[in-house]
Amino acid sequence: MTQAAAGGLGAPSNPAPSGSGGLTLQTGRSQPGPAAQASAGPASGPRRAPASGPKAAVQDRVFPAPAFGSVRQLGEANPLVRLNARQSAIGSLLVAGVRSVAWEDTHFTTGAHHADGHKAGTPVMTPGNRPLVGFEDSSGVVSLRHVRLLRRALFIAAEKPLTIGVFDGAAAAVAPRNDDGFRTVLHLCRIGAILEVRTEFVPADASDATVWTLFGFTMTIPLDQRVLLR
Question: Which residues of the chain have pLDDT under 50?
């Protein structure tokens, strides 16, 4: 399987320098970082006993974030939303308005799919022989039934607003560029059984390969299945 270079796809030849313009790794002005919250501790009131169970395990690893569906428009002021367990596991997560999508599974297998059909890296197939991440009816899609195979995904905006939706009707939108003209990228990350969506921004003219490098993606080389079947 060969990967095409058209549409900005292709393995990056020169890693982007640290601090490339436009990439923001902020939690938003209203969202304090996990280190700050850990040091602050409870403001007042009696100390509560720690919660137990799977839900508590996830909560112990992440800082508070708005629920998906509670913030209708994402951006620099509200860059982060977190899906609940049901939203993260039922049906598909759809992102309309994307130029391309890239993925990384739990084995660090990476690949990408451009809206014009060009592909790079290695596809990740679910037990039902369906792509874990890809395109469907011109939208980026994540198969949530097998979400535990996913580590993270990137959705690079085209020239129209991105719209994110799940099975229960919860949705959010984000402009394709911020006020300074930087292009929007949605970074989808799995934490345990929960998905988190963060809005980031990159230089408007950055190619797909450059964006992959900024986020630490390196396209893996697919194995020839004919060799494996011998």
Answer: 1-22, 24-51
CA of 76: how far to CAs of 28, 36, 128, 202, in Å? 6, 20, 38, 13
> Whose CA is closest to 184, among 208, 164, 155, 163?
155
Maximum Cα–Cα distance for the chain, whole Å?
67
Q: Which of helix, strand or coil describes residue 8?
A: helix
pTM exceeding 0.70: yes
CA distance 68 to 121: 30
pLDDT in tens, 44-60: 444 444 445 555 555 55
Long-range contacts from 24-27, C-beta under 8 angstroms, 24+ separation: 24/76, 24/79, 24/200, 24/201, 25/200, 26/76, 26/79, 27/63, 27/79, 27/80
What size, in residues, is the chain? 230
Alpha-carbon distance of 166 to 141, in angstroms, equals: 10
Q: What is the DSSP string of 91-121?
A: SEEEEESEEEEEEEETT--EEEEETTS-EEE
Adjacent-strand bridge partners of 162: 174
Pairing relationship of beta strands 162-165 and 110-114 according to DSSP bridges: unpaired
